[in-house]
Every structure is written in structure tokens, then in C-alpha cells.
Prior knowledge:
By secondary structure, this protein is an all-alpha fold. The chain has one domain (2-76). 78% of the residues lie in helices and 0% in strands. It has three helices and no strands. It has helices at residues 2-19, 25-48, 54-76. The model has no long low-confidence stretch (mean pLDDT 93).
Amino acid sequence: MLRRVVAFFGHAPALWLFYRETIPPPLRRPNAIAVMLTLAAMAAAYEVAPGGSPGLATFAAWVVGHLAWGAVLASRLPAPTTV
């Protein structure tokens, strides 16, 4: 359970830091797509933000993308392999 929480909030870096594991191969392509979509949403939010708040809009887009991918990663993360 804690491993999924770590994956939800910290994604690949946290999985590596705490568990020395990488994102499983079946989730690597979706991870790359999530990164690209989050960056695109951040750029779009920056461009369409009302005057004076592009930073806040960009941050909000990042939070939404981060939490969305965290939910996907945590729910699809396979059981840990034992050595």
C-alpha cells in the first residue's frame, strides 16, 4: 500500500529512491505521454491565463497532470518482484 502512495505522489523518482525500481515497461509509454500532455497543458494554461496569473494557471495545470498520472501509475503498478 505504501508503495502505491509513493508512486502516486513521487512517480518514477520516488520509486527509484525508496524501492530501487523503475517504472515497469508496460507503463513507460503512458508515462512519456503523460509528461507530454502535462507540458502541453502547462503551456496552454500559461498562454490563456488571465492577465497577472500565468504562473498560477501553469502551476494548476501541473498539479492536475501530476495527480492524474499519479492515480494511473498507482492503480496500474504491478506487485513488486522479489529477488
